[in-house]
Write a structure and sequence with these properties.
- This protein is of the alpha+beta class.
- Helix content is 47%, strand content 16%.
- The chain is built from six helices and five strands.
- Strand 3 and strand 4 (89-91) form a beta hairpin.
- Helix 3 (121-140) runs antiparallel to helix 5 (150-173).
- It is elongated and about 60 Å long.
C-alpha cells in the first residue's frame, strides 16, 4: 500500500472523500497525514526487524561528540556503556556530557524511524489502522466507531509480531557463528 492509499484509508474512515494527489492545506488531508506520522512513530519505536540495526560503528568527531541520525528513535545498547540521544548528539549519562573524546569509535544497536516507502506491508497495515482509530477518536469523537477497528488493528499487530519473531528466528538460525556451534 502506498502512502496516498493510506491517507485515503484514514480519510474514508471519517467519511471524507479520498484524494488522487497530495492535498496539502486541506484540513482533513493534513490531519490524516499527522495521524499517520504519529502512528508510524508509535508503532516503529518498539523496534522491529525492519528498523533495528545492530553493531553499528559510530565515530567520534574531532570535538569529542558523536552525531546521531535525525531519524533515530532510540539507542538500544552501546558496547561502551549507557548512551542516550540528546539534541542530535550521543549523551553519556555517566559523565553527564556529550563528550566521548576518550573513544575513537563506539558500537551501538538502535531503532530508526523508516520512511513509508521502506516499510513492509504488514507494518503499513498496522500504522494505517492505528492512524484511522486516532483520526476517528479526535476528529469525530466517535469511540464506538474507533472501537470497531480494534479487532482489525489487533489482528494486523499480531501478524506483524509473528513476522518479527519468524524473521528474527531465521536470522539467528542462519548466523554462521550459530551454525558452527551446533
Amino acid at each position: 500500500m502506498d502512502y496516498l492509499d493510506a491517507v485515503n484509508y484514514v480519510l474514508n474512515q471519517i467519511g471524507s472523500p479520498g484524494v488522487s494527489a497530495p492535498q496539502v492545506g486541506l484540513p482533513d488531508y493534513d490531519a490524516a497525514e499527522r495521524r499517520l506520522a504519529e502512528a508510524s512513530t508509535w508503532v516503529q519505536k518498539r523496534g522491529w526487524w525492519f528498523n533495528t540495526e545492530t553493531n553499528v560503528t559510530l565515530t567520534v568527531e574531532g570535538d569529542g561528540t558523536i552525531i546521531l541520525p535525525t531519524n533515530l528513535l532510540k539507542v538500544l545498547n552501546s558496547k561502551s556503556g549507557f548512551m542516550l540521544a540528546r539534541g542530535g548528539l550521543a549523551y553519556n549519562p555517566n559523565t553527564q556530557s556529550t563528550d566521548w573524546s576518550g573513544y575513537t569509535s563506539i558500537n551501538v544497536s538502535w531503532v530508526l524511524l523508516q520512511p513509508w516507502e521502506n516499510l513492509p506491508e504488514v507494518a503499513t497495515d498496522v500504522i494505517r489502522i492505528a492512524a484511522a482509530q486516532e483520526m476517528i477518536t479526535i476528529e469525530l469523537e466517535d469511540m464506538r466507531k474507533a472501537d470497531s477497528l480494534s479487532t482489525k488493528y489487533r489482528d494486523a499487530y499480531v501478524e506483524m509480531k509473528k513476522d518479527d519473531l519468524e524473521i528474527k528466528k531465521r536470522s539467528k538460525n542462519y548466523n554462521p557463528a550459530f551454525i558452527c556451534l551446533r
